[in-house]
Amino acid sequence: MNFKYLFGLTCAFGIAATSAYALPKATDLVADMGLGYNIGNTMEVPGNPTAWGNDFPTAEYVKAIKAAGFNTVRIPCAWDSHASNGTINAGWLDSVKTVVDLVVGEGMYAMLNSHWDNGWLEDHVFDGKGYDKTGEVNSSAATVAAKQESYWKQIATKFAAYDEHLIFASANEPGVNDPWNGGVQWKFDEARMKVLQSFHDACIKGVRAAGGNNATRTIIVQAPRTEIDNAPLLSSNMPTDPAGAGYIMAEVHYYPYQYSLMTADEDWGTQFYYYFDMPSTTDKTHNMGWNVYSKSIDDEALGTPKQIAKAFGELKTMFCDKGIPVVIGEMGAVKRLDALSGANLKLHLEGRAAWYGEVAKVAKANGLIPCVWDTGDEGNGNFTIVRRQTKKFGGNVGDITDYETLNAMRAAYGMTAIEGNSIDALVNASLDESNKMLEATYSTVTSDSSEVGTLRFNVTNKDWSKYTAIAFQAKVDVESAGPATGGDYAWKTLSLFAMSGDSWTWNDYNFAESDLDAGWATYTVTLDADGLDIENKKSVNAIGINLYGTQLSGKILFDNFRLIKADGTFDVLADFDKKIGGETDGILSAKLVTSTAPAPSTAIKPVAAAASKMFVNVQQGFVNATFSAKGNVQAKAMLMNTMGQVIASESFVTRSGSNTVQLKAETRGPAILMVKQGSQVYSQKVILK
Prior knowledge:
Layout: H1 30-33, E1 36-38, H2 59-67, E2 72-75, E3 83-84, E4 87-88, H3 90-104, E5 109-113, E6 128-132, E7 135-139, H4 141-158, E8 166-169, E9 180-181, E10 184-185, H5 190-208, E11 219-222, H6 231-235, E12 248-254, H7 257-260, E13 290-291, E14 296-297, H8 305-318, E15 326-331, H9 342-365, E16 368-372, H10 390-393, H11 403-412, H12 423-430, E17 436-443, E18 451-462, E19 467-476, E20 491-500, E21 505-511, E22 521-526, E23 540-550, E24 553-565, E25 570-574, E26 583-586, E27 588-594, E28 605-606, E29 615-619, E30 622-629, E31 634-640, E32 646-653, E33 657-664, E34 669-677, E35 680-688
Parallel strand pairs: 1-2, 1-16, 2-5, 5-8, 8-11, 11-12, 12-15, 15-16, 22-28
Antiparallel strand pairs: 3-4, 6-7, 9-10, 13-14, 17-24, 17-27, 18-23, 18-26, 19-22, 19-24, 20-21, 20-23, 24-25, 29-30, 30-33, 31-32, 31-34, 34-35
Helix pairs in contact: 4-5, 8-9, 9-11, 9-12
């Protein structure tokens, strides 16, 4: 059932008179802002808002958010990846305006922020020597602040005539990607807070200088990492506002880790599957508050009602009581669809809905504005309440996918329940024991630009030192599909990859075309120097398969991913019998179908080891790749950005023995380097300088 029109007529508050007037103060907006919703994984995607699986927001989708009872929409947004020489692309500003207009046109508040966007600001909250994901680097806080001020002046100029229903937010989670060492994240202290304060000052300065209603527009500033524990640092180092007191809000996020995000039990603590007020009697170690040391429940653990009340009360005292409203810009807890089934899954989902209701109730009582996080996905670990990925999950845009969670929050805000049930279907699906497989469909464009599709399993800091190989069943190119069935430049290759360690180091193994059978086969790749040589087997974060190609469409069937031990026994990574078990993106889309795979063979088909490895050297403006070849073969080297677009290429003929090719790199950031010689393809992730 679709309730996208439940709340009736729209109204257009967003575009006010062209002349400036004093907008209401931040405290005057809180009551009307109500519940908030994030349009996540869309406008903040670097370079392309549809690259992470969501369509561009439509009027139908935004109307559905309004109809569901939300009155604030947070729009995470990228800017730097849409800028050239410091100027934001005019077309991108128009695209963002389209989404803002959809929101304010429904009478809702639009919170437009500067999201991660490859970390240009948020990964560099320090001055001079510091650390980001690449290791030790130097960053000029003054340079970052200058860019921040310039971008926000451009943004604010675009929206100068909009009234109080448009709110700007300086950043997202500044410093959240700081590196970890020995289980401790790089310290965020008073000195670094001063740097973050300068970034907030720059945002405010840029907005206030843009004219129009920006002189008194409400602006949101973020605590370090938007962690509640770091809120005191923000409270004692608030930015200076030329508009005077009353036009600033503070932002934190609320993800109590063990309940909201944790995906594997650790020695220090377990995942919390069951809400504190709805504990399990048969799975006590996964009840919220379980302490692995005392073997008892801590009623003040993160996520419990006591902790919510304490933390939100402290925020009220710290900010709200001083005339600074607080936005909980993101909050939520994953649905654990892979870990649980039957009665346990039902208890988890019902408790999860109750938890959302408790967070909303306590937030409202303390004058906070809670905004639920949403990525559009509906698989394991999702947060989604309003459907938008209909191609993948069916139904209609605007369908409610989680009535129980929505209704719990509506009740906290005095709204009546919307009739519907989402839990029973998930529980029934969890009891389906039929043999399933993953049908992955890929479709590339008809051009000479290659694209990437990914099947990825996130495992989060797992120790794989006991495993010697990974094996899986696959049937490649079941049939052609779609218009791109082959052309002058048609090619594809498969690559098995892993990411490990605190820096998520990339390692991969490339399959030659001769490795892949047309029918079902069981493949194994050793986890050593002759196969997938994972750099840190004691800390594996993700593993998966990338398909690279162009001018080709087809299907690949996967089943029974297994991790092989030295004694020949194995653990199942994914058999797809109940859930997809992994994530797909790029040119790959996937669904579960009845398996046609034969029983997994104990006589595993060996995959030939790569003849040699590719050695890559990245210099500023250039990438050099050295590899071996058996003779004179037509070859091509390519650099692809994260959207699969070719940003540099070179065709050449190899010679027997060692070969080196150089590509000019005119951009910076992550990319994929590929060298194709005949059927042999080398690929490696690189960071362009």
